[in-house]
């Protein structure tokens, strides 16, 4: 007789982790490290099943993700009236209090729901009518800038999913970038690039155009096992089922994973004095235990010394008119610098200027497409560590 199927765990909840295109596999790996069950991979999203503790852990511990969503209701969205009707049928009053300030956004695409503002309007009407009826005319208010509860209408082909954004503010906002240089990199992208670069989290790492240091800070947190979002607030804290003791317990578990890597070297080079000082101020305030060092000047004039096992960087793209003439020599110099100082290990350069990437010289082993906002960036892997398989070509 076949063994009876295990009873479903009533605490298991479905979830969707959103990320930028190209980082789905990296996010999947991060979820596994956080012991969260992955059940599927989609375009710019990874599907999970977990419990409240898992949602809290994912928000604090994920490095390359943007938002963690908790789906509430999924349905066939043939028209805008269905958005109202399904929203009206949802027990929102069991999820958040009537005085919550809400923000509603639409993500994804559907052939039938193309007017985003109207879709938001219909869902908002459904939510407010639910509360009005149950709470004697009182209803939540709308607050776009600093909401308590963020609701996402996730569209995928003909299906719409109403979801609570457990993150609230997107996860790339760690809180350490109080100031920055020109064209800083978003933190989730920096972490994703480091994971795709082939860096082993132990070898000395060099960023020869470090700007305000995002790659170096993310590298430090990866090497030291520091969860990147331990000290910020989340959308889940405004929900009625928020369990503060559980949140603190998960935070302590993540803190227990921290290590103190000895002999780790993280070196940045930066030509702009103001940007270099910004990097040092952020380092001293938020990462005082990190070994991050700065050499000021042009990387072309700096000898970083021997032993660097990895290089990761994000040079200027020079996409503004008038800058092309300076950019090609800069990329060519970077190629020479890598061949001179990176005898071993891996080198990966992220840029949206693909013409300039042709100036690196030497042989490029692969490049990986990764969107940076609307810019179609690619991560060029100029050198790969021996044991590092290429993830995509
Ligand atoms: C796109 S930004 C890097 C942003 C950085 N990843 C961050 O998140 O802040 C490029 C940086 O390269 C610096 N830079 C440009 N040419 C350089 C050179 N020859 N040597 C060193 N730094 C240079 C710029 O001043 C700028 O801060």
Give a description of the structure:
Helix content is 30%, strand content 24%. It is α/β, with parallel strands linked by helices. It folds into two domains: 13-165, 2-Layer Sandwich (VC0802-like), CATH 3.30.2130.30; 187-224 and 260-383, Rossmann fold (3-Layer(aba) Sandwich), CATH 3.40.50.150. The protein has an eight-stranded mixed β-sheet with strand order 2-3-1-4-8-7-5-6. Strand 10, helix 8 and strand 11 (292-296) form a beta-alpha-beta unit. The longest helix is centred in the first third of the chain and has 19 residues, at 116-134. The model has no long low-confidence stretch (mean pLDDT 91). Bound molecules: S-adenosylmethionine (SAM).
Strand order of the largest sheet: 2-3-1-4-8-7-5-6
User: In DSSP terms, counting alpha (H) and pi (I) runs of 4 or more, how many helices?
Assistant: 10
How large is the radius of gyration? 23 Å
* CATH fold assignment of the largest domain: Rossmann fold
What is the CATH superfamily of the largest domain? Answer: Vaccinia Virus protein VP39
Mean pLDDT: 91
Order of helices and strands: EHEEHEHEHEEEHEHHEHEEHEHEE
Compute the number of structural domains. Answer: 2
Instruction: Flag low-confidence runs.
Output: none
Global outline: elongated
Distance between the termini: 48 Å
């Amino acid at each position: 007789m076949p063994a009876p199927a295990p009873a479903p765990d009533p605490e298991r909840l479905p979830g969707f982790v959103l990320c930028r295109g190209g980082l789905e596999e990296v996010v999947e790996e991060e979820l596994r490290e956080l012991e969260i069950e992955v059940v599927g991979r989609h375009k710019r999203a990874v599907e999970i099943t977990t419990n409240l503790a898992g949602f809290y852990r994912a928000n604090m511990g994920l490095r390359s993700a943007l938002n963690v969503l908790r789906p509430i209701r999924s349905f066939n969205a043939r028209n805008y009236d269905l958005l109202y009707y399904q929203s009206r049928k949802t027990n929102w009053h069991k999820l958040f209090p009537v005085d919550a300030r809400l923000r509603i956004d639409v993500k994804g695409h559907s052939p039938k729901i193309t007017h985003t503002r109207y879709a938001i309007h219909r869902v908002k009407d459904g939510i407010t009518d639910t509360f009005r009826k149950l709470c004697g005319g009182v209803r939540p208010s709308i607050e776009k800038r600093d909401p308590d509860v963020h609701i996402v209408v996730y569209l995928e082909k003909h299906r719409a999913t109403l979801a609570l954004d457990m993150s609230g503010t997107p996860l790339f906002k760690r809180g350490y970038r109080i100031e920055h240089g020109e064209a800083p990199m978003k933190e989730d992208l920096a972490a994703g690039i480091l994971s795709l670069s082939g860096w082993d989290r132990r070898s000395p790492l060099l960023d020869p155009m470090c700007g305000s240091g995002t790659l170096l800070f993310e590298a430090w947190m990866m090497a030291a096992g520091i969860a990147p979002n331990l000290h910020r607030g989340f959308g889940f804290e405004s929900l009625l089922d928020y369990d503060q003791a559980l949140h603190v317990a998960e935070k302590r578990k993540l803190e227990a994973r921290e290590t103190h890597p000895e002999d780790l070297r993280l070196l940045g080079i930066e030509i702009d004095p103001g940007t270099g000082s910004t990097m040092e101020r952020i380092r001293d305030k938020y990462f005082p235990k990190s070994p991050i060092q700065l050499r000021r000047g042009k990387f072309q004039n700096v000898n970083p010394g021997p032993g660097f096992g990895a290089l990761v960087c994000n040079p200027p793209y020079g996409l503004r008119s008038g800058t092309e003439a300076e950019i090609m020599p800069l990329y060519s110099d970077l190629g020479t610098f890598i061949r001179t100082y990176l005898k071993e290990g891996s080198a990966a350069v992220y840029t949206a200027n693909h013409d300039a990437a042709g100036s690196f010289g030497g042989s490029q082993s692969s490049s990986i497409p990764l969107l940076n906002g609307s810019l179609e960036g690619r991560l060029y892997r100029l050198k790969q560590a021996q044991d590092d398989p290429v993830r995509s070509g």
